[in-house]
Design goal:
Chain lengths: ~375, ~375
């Protein structure tokens, strides 16, 4: 019996054809395509097709998936009934977890678990997540809902539904790239949670709900929000000039600075390279460099002090900030992208399944005899 | 890098003091107490205390947890608002998954993640699950709700809320034992899913929601329902006299007979021993031996043909059948018990946490260059 220690670090939990990481070289690839090729070239719709079909789409296939992801953006009636209550009562990731769970009930494919039905269910989940997040935000702010525009890309449509007016092409494209960058990342905790569920042959909505549940954690998807809170805190202290002292002070007091380091990458997370560049672009475009400059100072301080690189969450925070996405929606936005990877992994798990049931190391009391209540 | 193969069989994923299994000897223990000692002696309330506190309760501690688990049985208003819709639209485990997820919103401890708050949240979840299941059943059948009776044990109260009249002491005690038998089982798939979520420091409601999502699968909690469906099918074919041929026919046609075999036990699952005895007791009491007799014939046929032992799901089906629990509530009833183990494991994970993030084996296409759409 192997004893890899807590965390299953380095233990192969599943085979996958969906994505791969070379942590030493800092390479991430989806189905053989380097993320550095995908970021400038692929749309999120193409990425979704790639993750699910293991090939880039032809023109016709791309039209089909765009049509599909455009058509299925409205939540079903049951979920729509819940949304006002969820918007009033619930934190964003809890809303998404509950709405995703609830959306299984009225799925047009019902309990059909064929490969084809699961593909359609996957597309519906990818299509509807941005709407859930945007509706939630508008409902909680007493704003009228902006219905999805099926003529827009998934990225542009999200910004439109959230803000009520159409983003310019440059911003829409940057957000589109963000979605591609976050779409998949091998056996990360949320994808793994989804696969553990799928491996009991539970349904795809269950597995994705488990993915959301795991992504919510501050050691996973929740980190991007905490980065933004740190940036805001530094801005309140006086801005970029205060960032270095703030950061070093944290580190020396053993307080974790979020958005740095990764279990898998020993060099720069290749996604961070693109997010840093886009944060800079948006900083210049907006005329307000503060998020970017503060981020740069934090990055330098962490590198000098600890030699640790920023991860995907670090510059994502600035980018989302410049796109005027509310901070508490950063992790739900992450989910809007990662749902493409979760569903692809769940379908891959179903296709060649074995129950995921690890062992444990017992560290409790030795065997002992029952003691009656009166003798305790 | 270890390559244990799919399923993480034999790979230690976590340390735990909560339960232990000796698969070769067929021993299950909770915190050092053999399940053969717990079944005849412990109440489910004592078991909950044991799993969470790693000691049997004193009289005062037992009174406290009984009071706590009696007081918190009503779902909060938000969840109550959802229940009629969930009862009309949703399958039982999907209802429980959605209701559990939704119940985080109005928890009196809010986002407090202190150890004490998580203990209270755990107790609330254990207390409310039976009510959710009973209310669901009565709502879908247009029956008036039966409000929980805090004077009854959790087991007796569930049967009361479900049926509308109080179970006799013998039946209530049998159901109580069932809850203890199902309460924990080391790193089973649902508990593991819950721990993977908890290890991102996501909240306890998220982790338990993931547990439900995994338990729902037919290779995990869903098996007990399928056993009952098989028993009913055999009854329709003519009863116990048809069971042997039916079973052997299935096995020879490579159709899985549910409720047999277990990844961990190489001998009889010790829980099956108690469930078999209780099924017999209820058969005699009811004057209708058919469930039990059919089960016995299936068990003998599987043993003769394959040498495989029944697991916890096999006789649980007969027992729940005799207790007149609707078949599609068997897995939710399993969840009503296992939530005690899930929450204990989640708290154990929080107390000494490390992100659970395994590795993968990449089996997809080799690195390849981007191809423009027009060239595909």
């Amino acid at each position: 019996m192997a004893a890899p220690g807590k965390g299953l670090e380095g233990v192969v939990a599943a085979e996958t054809a969906i994505s791969d990481i070379d942590g030493k070289e800092g390479v991430l690839s989806y189905v053989g395509y380097d993320i550095h090729d995908l970021a400038p070239n692929a749309t999120f719709e193409e990425t979704c097709y790639l993750l699910h079909n293991l090939e880039l789409p032809t023109e016709q296939q791309l039209d089909e998936i765009k049509e599909q992801l455009g058509r299925e953006r409205e939540p079903n009636d049951f979920v729509m009934d819940l949304m006002p209550q969820l918007a009033q009562n619930t934190a964003p990731m809890s809303m998404l977890r509950t709405a995703c769970s609830a959306s299984s009930a009225n799925d047009p494919d019902g309990w059909d678990t064929s490969e084809e039905a699961n593909y359609r269910k996957a597309m519906r989940l990818i299509a509807v997540f941005p709407t859930l997040v945007a509706y939630y935000d508008r409902l909680r702010n007493d704003q009228p809902l902006v219905r999805p525009d099926s003529g827009l890309s998934l990225a542009a449509n999200f910004l439109y539904m959230l803000k009520g007016d159409k983003a310019d092409d440059a911003e829409a494209r940057i957000f589109d790239i963000c979605l591609t960058l976050h779409a998949d990342h091998t056996m990360n905790a949320s994808t793994f949670a989804a696969r553990v569920c799928a491996a009991t042959l539970s349904d795809i909505h269950s597995a994705v709900t488990a993915g959301i549940a795991a992504l919510k954690g501050p050691l996973h998807g929740g980190a991007n929000e905490q980065v933004m809170r740190m940036i805001k805190e530094i801005r309140n202290l006086g801005g970029a000039g205060k960032a270095r002292d703030y950061t070093i002070d944290k580190l020396r007091n053993k307080v974790k600075v979020m958005g740095f380091g990764h279990r898998v990458y020993k060099t720069e997370d290749p996604r961070a390279t693109h997010l840093r560049r886009m944060a800079k672009e948006l900083a210049e475009k907006s005329g307000d460099g503060s998020n970017y400059e503060i981020s740069q100072e934090i990055e330098r301080a962490v590198m000098d002090e600890k030699g640790i690189y920023p991860n995907v969450d670090f510059y994502a925070a600035s980018v989302y900030g410049y796109l005027r996405i509310p901070t508490d929606l950063f992790t739900p936005v992450f989910a809007c992208s990662r749902v493409s990877g979760w569903t692809a992994h769940v379908r891959e798990q179903y296709a060649d399944n074995r129950l995921i049931r690890p062992d444990h190391a017992y560290v409790g009391p030795e065997r002992r005899s029952w003691k009656a209540l009166s003798q305790r």
